[in-house]
Amino acid sequence: KAGVTQTPRYLIKTRGQQVTLSCSPISGHRSVSWYQQTPGQGLQFLFEYFSETQRNKGNFPGRFSGRQFSNSRSEMNVSTLELGDSALYLCASRQGTSGIRGQYFGPGTRLTVT
Amino acid sequence: ILNVEQSPQSLHVQEGDSTNFTCSFPSSNFYALHWYRWETAKSPEALFVMTLNGDEKKKGRISATLNTKEGYSYLYIKGSQPEDSATYLCAPNFGNEKLTFGTGTRLTIIP
Q1: A99 and B4 in contact by Cβ < 8 A?
Q2: What is the DSSP string of B46-102?
Q3: Residues of chain A positioned with their CB less than 8 A from the CB of B95
Q4: Chain A contacts of B89, Cβ < 8 Å?
Q5: Chain segment A35-85, per-residue pLDDT in tens
Q6: Per the CB < 8 Å rule, is B98 touching A108?
């Protein structure tokens, strides 16, 4: 099976712009989660989607939003970019949302905001 | 906010030596614990998932134990090899579907 894919892999944006990141899960996985990683921080949970519905949400401002399509692909949008949004954004997929289900991670999108 | 702590933050180990590190988490409402290995320039990769107190899992030279009553898990690496260099992340779950990741232990194996 193909793994989790994320596009683009690298992105440079200017403060105030918006950005959309894409994630295609492993075939058959209906759950997609998004994480942000900044230097010195662990993986900070953004949100999780399952069957096109947001199941869980982390403590991020409303500028961060996401959605999931009927084919389970997911997009994450960040509006009005700030310098502090520069980070590695990882998505992860799993078959269900049970806490016992491990996640399969994509390679990440490295976002730099200047 | 759930407090998941991993110690030490970083570790340098001579090739061939064995090592271990810790993940501490709140014991109440515990449901499952996941361990991941994250090598530089790669994606985090699942190592183990454990649920029961006293659980012990093994994968090659890597093993993990779980104490749900006191809220900790140990990861052990026997006979460290250069390919073990990575950041090791733990992620407990408390029955609410979310995985809460610790900040990781960065392991460097010195040849």
Answers
A1: no
A2: EEEEE-STT-EEEETTEEEEEETTTTEEEEEESS--GGG-EEEEEEEE-SSS-----
A3: 99
A4: 42-43
A5: 999 987 889 999 999 999 999 899 999 999 999 999 999 999 999 999 999
A6: no
